[in-house]
Structure formats: structure tokens, C-alpha cells
Amino acid sequence: MTERAETPPVTPGTVTEVAVCIIGAGPVGATLAARLASAGLPTAVVDHAGLPPMELPEFDGRAYAIALSSRRLLDAAGVWDLLPWAPGPITRIRCTDGAPGEAASALRLHFDAAESGTEAFGWMVEARALRMALNARMRSLAHLIVRAPAKAEVTRTAGGAEIRLSTGELIRARLVVAAEGRRSRLREQAGIGIATHDYGQLGLVGAVAHELPHEQMALEHFLPHGPFAQLPLAPTPEHPNASAIVWSEKRGIAERMLALSDEDYGKEIQRRMGDHLGKVTPIGRRWSYPLSAMHALRYTDTRLALIGDAAHGIHPIAGQGLNLGFRDVSALAELLLGTAADPGSPELLAQYQAARRPDALVMMGATHALEKLFGNRFPPLRLARRLGMAAVDRMPKLKRAFAQRAMGITGALTR
Ligand SMILES: Cc1cc2nc3c(=O)[nH]c(=O)nc-3n(C[C@H](O)[C@H](O)[C@H](O)COP(=O)(O)OP(=O)(O)OC[C@H]3O[C@@H](n4cnc5c(N)ncnc54)[C@H](O)[C@@H]3O)c2cc1C
Q1: Could you tell which of 6, 31, 64, 186 is best to mutate to test the pocket of ligand 1, judged by most ligand atoms within 8 Å of the CB?
Q2: How far away, in angstroms, is 108 Cα from ligand 1 center?
């Protein structure tokens, strides 16, 4: 594949003026760039990596569960319709509680999209498909400047920001957005501290092919060492029956699992997933990452806003990591596009922080509590949570409230 650089040859000394300059073109930064430029706001986005290598052409097993609120954002950014193939809807969710091998636990919690009055709880979108759509959208926008690969040195003052690129170009912006992921350099440079919690677990991520159709049902199985999720992927000619898996496991055990042969790895997945989809076979790559929660103590500084993983990282138990980042994008875009005033003013930044930090804290608290509640093997607690699941299963209103929260359609900033 020929790599297409997004950084055209520029004459050193070129000065470009934009309203907003985003550092980091990951899924969150790229979506903000597309959203703002789609609405006509002059925007720049800079990434130290090139964009084409982010589009891995082969199926690689990574996929995101996109909530309804995130789909609406991708629509508004002109990205959803550019997805190269149809995302797989999740129309049913089943939660069970047990130990490996007890996948057919008697006490379960079922969610049905039809009962919740919605088409789907969310859509499974392959990471490579989202990347292709984002890159295609960014290339088409007249109000967007994309510089990747390029290194950026940022200077911020009360009056504005200057971004000096390794190409020799200078960008002047009213607001800089840090979207460089967990190890955000801009966050560090601004002296913004973080609170972290290490779960002592690894997240094992990948995909499996299975004999039987998943019928758009997702499974969340709460196991003693961490949750195991099976998420239904859209059928492809290559893999008509396939699901993504997100499996949290104690670090030592996870490392042993990663060293297994494909066949033995498949058996371990099957033990956790159960037999409802017939025999399972791992496909694509195996991905793993250490699970920790992280929260920035502030989301803003002079002419600076943090979004996505630069601001927060959560346990994948509820599959909400990227959705949380997309809610930052919606909130910031709504504020920036709703005002003709200075886009980096202290007032606007204060509004952004007030809109987003409490929501992220609630989501972090909820995922943390779920992890603690379901990771506990103390028998009375295990009985209580099983009875709780059975009770919730019989309360349609409460179930609908849970489902709406997961879809991101409650709360203030979800338009
Ligand atoms: C293996 C793995 C699997 C995951 N699976 C899921 C999942 O199934 N569902 C889900 O919701 N979440 C998942 N997550 C979490 C999800 O990937 C993140 O929440 C999401 O990627 C955050 O997006 P982001 O754009 O904020 O940051 P990132 O994806 O980290 O992107 C940051 C971007 O900034 C660029 N950058 C970094 N530093 C600089 C710099 N100094 N200058 C310029 N550019 C810079 C990087 O090149 C990158 O393009 C997973 C994470 C991992 C690691």
C-alpha cells in the first residue's frame, strides 16, 4: 500500500489561522475535527503518526460498541454514512453471573431492544471501518486542515495559542484540544494531575467465529476474575457468524492465556462463553492491554480542553470507553458551534468542564462499582447480586432505565 501523507509540502514560515486546533487524530480527535469542520468552523488536526497506517486493511479483531448517542454524533459529523460496510446492531443483551463453566447460570438479566422501544441498543463497528470512514471524511472537508504525520510544539497564552509544526508551518488557534490519548503531553505540560486505579487485570480483545448465528445478541458474563463479553459482529462473506470478545482477566492468568495455542485459547474462550453459539474459533489478532482507570483532575487550562482518553480512561466492563469520549466531543462541539464568541474563552471552557466531568465521574464510579460487585466471590454477596439480577429482570421500567443509560440517551448533552 502506498502511504498517502496528509501533510502536503509547505513553505516554512507559512502561517495558518484556525478557530480550533486538535492535537491527536485518534477516533475522538478525528470525530471532533469532522464535526466542527462539517459545520463550517475553521479547524486543524495534527497527529504525530500518519493516517493511512491507521487503516489496517485486514480484519484484525478490534471493534467498538457504538451507543445511539455516538451514532447520532457520527451522523452529524458525516462519518456514519461513509462506513465501508454495515455495522452489526445489538438488539438483545444477556447478563449472567457465575464461574467459568457455569455459563448457563439460572439467574440472568435479559434486555430486549423492542421492549425498550428502540431499534437497537448499539452497533458493533470494526475499528478499521471507523478509521476508513473518519479518514475519508476528513479528506473531504474544505474547512479542515489535516497535518499527519507532523510533530507539534504548542504555546498557549490568554490571548491565543501557537502550534509550531515540524514541517516549519505555524498554526494560530483560539483553542487547542488535547486528544492524544492516555499519555497526553499537553495535559502534562499544563500540570494537570491525574487520579489512577490499577485493576491488576489485562483486557484481552479479539474476535471469534462460531458455528451458530448470534441473532444480534450480546452476552456479558460476570466471572470471578473479571467480566467476559461477547459482542455480535455484522456477517461478512469471510465470517458469516462472528463476535468480538472483550475479556478481563487477572494479569497472571491473562498472560498464560495469551501464550496458549489457537486451539487451547479457543477452548478457554468457549469455557467462559458457553455453548450457545456452538464451537468457537479465534480469528484475527489477539490484543491485550493493562486495565486501569484514569481521571484528569481538570479538563481545561488556558486555551486548552482535554477530550477522550486524554481526560479519562475507564474499565471496559460496560464497553463505554469510546462512547464517553464521543460525549466529550458532542458537548464541546455544541458549545463551540453554539456561540459566535471566542471559542477558547475561560467561560466556554468552564461550561465544558461543568458539562463533562460529572458525567465521566458517574460512568467511572458505575463501572468501578460493577467491577467490584461482580468480581467478589464472597458467597452472601454473590447470592445477593444474583437475586438482584433476577429482581431487576422482573422490573421493566428499571430495565428500560438501565438500557437508556447504556445507549447514552439520558442526561443533558445527548442531542
Ligand atoms: C487494545 C485496545 C482495545 C480496546 N477496545 C475497546 C472497545 O472494544 N470498545 C471501546 O469503547 N473502547 C476500547 N478501547 C478503548 C478505546 O480504544 C479508547 O477509549 C479510544 O481509542 C480513545 O480514543 P482517543 O482518540 O481519545 O485516543 P487514542 O485512540 O489513544 O488516540 C490518540 C491519538 O493521538 C495521537 N498522538 C498521541 N500523542 C501525540 C502527540 N504528542 N502529538 C500528536 N499526536 C499524538 C496518536 O497517534 C493517536 O492517533 C480499547 C483500547 C485498547 C488499547
Answers
A1: 64
A2: 33
Asked if residue 173 and residue 205 are part of one domain, the reply reads no
Return left, alpha or beta for 408; rule: phi > 0 is left, psi -120 to 50 is alpha, else beta.
Answer: left
Q: How many CB atoms lie within 10 A of CB 26?
A: 21
Number of H helices, E strands in the chain: 10, 19
Per-residue model confidence as pLDDT tens digits over 168-186: 999 999 999 999 999 999 9
Among left, alpha and beta (phi > 0; psi -120 to 50; other), residue 229 is beta
Domain range holding 160? 15-59+128-195+294-372
d(Cα 131, Cα 143) in Å, to the nearest integer?
Answer: 20
CATH number for the domain that contains residue 348: 3.50.50.60
Cα(304) to centroid(ligand 1), Å: 19
- Closest residue by Cα to atom 39, ligand 1, is 180
Q: Looking at the structure, do residues 84 and 134 belong to the same domain, yes or no? A: no
Residue 394 located in a structural domain: no
Terminal-to-terminal C-alpha distance of the chain: 39
Q: Which pTM value belongs to this model?
A: 0.88
* Nearest-10 Cα torsion for 181, 182, 187, 189: -100
User: How many A from CA of 64 to the centre of ligand 1?
Assistant: 12
How far is Cα 353 from Cα 27, in angstroms, rounded to an integer?
Answer: 21
Interhelix angle 68-76/27-38, rounded to 10 degrees, is 50
Q: Is 53 in the pocket of ligand 1 (CB under 6 A)?
A: no
3-class SS of residue 40? coil
Interval 342-394: pLDDT, tens? 999 999 999 999 999 988 887 777 666 656 555 555 555 555 555 565 555 55
Using N-to-C axis directions, what is the helix angle for 346-374 and 379-393, rounded to 10°? 110
Q: Which helix (H) or strand (E) holds 319?
A: none
Instruction: Determine the Cα–Cα distance for residues 369 and 243; give it in Å rounded to an integer.
Output: 26
What is the count of structural domains for the chain? 2
Cα separation, 33 vs 366, in Å, equals 30
64 lines ligand 1 (CB under 6 A): yes
Query: For residue 40, is it within any domain?
Result: yes
C-alpha of residue 215 to centroid of ligand 1, in Å = 30
Whether omega before 379 lies within 30 degrees of 0, making that bond cis, reads: no
